[in-house]
Design brief:
It is a single chain. The chain is an alpha+beta fold. Helix content is 32%, strand content 18%. It has a 5-stranded antiparallel sheet with strand order 3-2-11-10-9, with helices on both faces. Helix 2 crosses helix 5. The protein is globular and about 50 Å long.
Length: 330
């Protein structure tokens, strides 16, 4: 398993936050309202140097689009806050409601009334992109999925995600489920910076559940050296989306792509973006790539005395199987 490297220096925190916020502000929307773009508009992308906060590449980065299952990164962000605060643990059992069980694929498929550990729910989300597990976690934290969606949107505002609005926890099709490539890159930086211990879950390639081996969808992570997460997404309205984290030779990139016409096209485009921009990235962290809470600049959390058990990363012994035909859900 490839663990994510943290940042040791907290010097210049306020300066770093301001610099990164300014970098994203360069892509601010030009009007009070914006059209919602889909795959027919082509792909939107942004690549950020995680060591400095510098935008290395961007095209259509602030176009408002449907995030599909990239939504689940925000669901997990709120969960990781609970875990870090001690309000929940990886061993906490969460119930599966009739509403959660009714979610369409992809899903784990547990029956109403059953329970699952937080750890297994997270692993199901990062590998199978399980919609039922996203909803079960949402209900455990927010009481109802709709209330949790309001919590997600509020957190997005705190993180400076100005284009995002959430109405569900999974990313299943909804007209008002909105984000942008720049917002998701911002979220990717924040979840990495704030929760490095739990971010390691995004490196999971497969996990065992009830005599099943469940494999992930992230073929860029499986095939590109240094890529260690984080999430794929697809609906018909969104096209093929991907949020990626990469560490190689002291460099750190976070990249977001929206609107691919196929998984293969999206993955090739992301691989090209990473290859083109890696050499341009700095090897010297000049700010603790915190996009933390936009209005709350706080020091990095102190290392915990005892690390939580990390998910097992399984190296691919054979080339990945061909990418199956997509299911038109998140």
């Amino acid at each position: 398993m490839r663990l994510v490297r943290g940042v040791s220096s907290h010097v210049g925190l306020a300066t770093g936050v301001i610099a990164l916020t300014a970098a994203f502000a360069a892509f601010a929307p030009s009007g009070a309202s914006a059209a919602v773009y889909g795959p027919s508009a082509g792909m939107a992308e942004i690549v950020i140097d995680g060591n400095t906060g510098k935008v290395l590449s961007a095209k259509g980065a602030d176009q408002v689009r449907h995030p599909a299952s990239l939504t689940k990164v925000m669901t997990l962000y709120l969960l990781f806050e609970r875990l870090a605060s001690g309000k929940m643990t990886l061993d906490t059992r969460i119930p599966i409601s009739a509403h959660a069980a009714s979610m369409p694929p992809t899903k784990l498929g547990l029956r109403p009334g059953s329970t699952i550990s937080v750890r297994s729910a997270v692993e199901a989300i990062v590998t199978r992109s399980a919609n039922d597990m996203a909803v079960a976690l949402a209900e455990a934290m927010g009481g109802t999925e709709s209330n949790f969606a309001r919590m997600m949107t509020a957190k997005a505002r705190q993180l400076g995600m100005t284009h995002s609005n959430f109405v569900n926890a999974s990313g299943l099709p909804a007209d008002a489920q909105l984000s942008s490539a720049s917002d998701m890159a911002r979220l990717g930086l924040a979840i990495h910076r704030n929760f490095p211990k739990y971010f390691a879950f995004f490196s999971t390639e497969k996990f065992h559940f009830r005599n099943q081996e469940i494999y992930g969808h992230n073929h860029v992570m499986a095939n590109v050296a240094g890529v260690d997460g984080i999430k794929t997404g697809y609906t018909r309205a969104s096209g093929f989306n991907l949020l990626t984290s990469m560490h190689r030779d002291g460099r750190f990139l976070v990249a977001s792509v929206f609107g691919g016409r196929s998984a293969v096209q999206r993955d090739r485009f992301m691989t090209s973006l990473l290859g083109t921009n890696l050499a341009r990235a700095s090897t010297h962290p000049s700010q603790p790539f915190m996009v933390a809470e936009a209005r709350v600049m706080r020091p990095a959390p102190k290392p915990e005395a005892k690390s939580a058990p990390a998910p097992t990363r399984v190296a691919a012994a054979t080339p990945p199987a061909p990418i199956p035909a997509p299911v038109p859900v998140a």
